[in-house]
Write a structure and sequence with these properties.
Elements lengths: L5 H7 L12 H7 L21 H40 L1 H9 L4 H40 L14 H26 L19 H23 L8 H35 L3
Length: 274
């Protein structure tokens, strides 16, 4: 026989959902009458108490696919959010970068400054995400078990590598998103110091406008064709991942067109006289 401590037994089997009772079935049924979710299995019906490894394996595979897809889409969205945010910030700070260039800063120094800012923000954001994840992951695991999406024994293990993976992935996302913005900041000329401190009117280039419009039209047309033909096709994994990515990319490319109007709209209540 193999014996475990209470703590180890709780770790191996967090939920006890089966009991073997040596008593008359009628007496057991009478004792549990009115208890929600309790079944008394006798005879051939006892096979329903088997663990069902194939069923559990399929459920775990589905959960891995669900969380993997969600993580991939989140990383994809994060890159474009970071890229758009830094592009807008660099456009607003062109006068500041022009002053630095006038004071003798080289393009490389300006680029490294922007990358260092992204690095610092990435470290803080990734650290905060890992901290929140350490509390949110067990709650999420419990929720999917309650919803019947995962086996009852499904829990979050005490592993360190997911936090390392999440931290470094978040940092790489931040640095990847700032790459284009740092190059744009490094190309700032000293003469930009003489400009007004406003958003660069060249932020929306013709290529960016054409690319964003093309992606937006592609997403709209493919969505319309799917709805008109076979709406069930939208539920396929490759479809419900790729189509949102088209929309996300299009919105990120066309963001400069709506950033200023939206900013004015949000600031309008505060700007109204009391």
């Amino acid at each position: 026989a193999v014996f475990y401590t209470d703590a180890r037994a709780a770790q191996l089997s967090p939920v006890i959902d089966q009991l073997v009772i040596d008593a008359a079935p009628a007496a057991v049924r009478e004792a549990v009458r009115g208890s929600a979710g309790v079944q008394v299995l006798t005879g051939d019906a006892r096979r329903r108490a088997d663990a069902g490894p194939d069923r559990d394996a399929e459920a775990v595979t589905a959960m891995n696919a669900l969380f993997g897809t969600a993580g991939g889409v989140t990383a994809f969205v994060s890159v474009f959010v970071v890229a758009s945010t830094f592009a807008f910030a660099v456009a607003q700070r062109r006068r500041e970068f022009g002053l630095l260039r006038t004071a003798g800063a080289t393009p490389g120094q300006v680029r490294r400054m922007v990358v260092a800012e992204a690095f610092g923000l990435g470290v803080l954001a990734s650290g905060a995400g890992c901290l929140l994840g350490s509390y949110g992951a067990p709650a999420l695991a419990a929720r999917v078990v309650e919803a019947g999406l995962a086996p009852r024994w499904f829990t979050v293990g005490h592993h360190v590598w997911p936090y390392h993976a999440a931290f470094w992935t978040g940092l790489l996302v931040a640095l990847g998103g700032v790459a284009a913005a740092s190059l744009r900041a490094g190309r700032t000329a000293p003469a930009e110091a003489l400009r007004e401190a406003s958003v660069d009117k060249g932020a929306m280039t013709r290529g960016r406008l054409l690319s964003g419009t093309a992606l937006l039209l592609t997403a709209a047309v493919t969505l319309g064709l799917a709805l008109a033909g076979d709406p069930g096709d939208l539920l396929h994994r490759k479809t419900y991942v790729s189509r949102p990515m088209l929309l996300i990319t299009a919105v990120a490319l066309l963001a400069p067109l709506v950033v200023r109007p939206v900013t004015r709209l949000l600031a309008w209540p505060a700007a109204r006289p009391a």
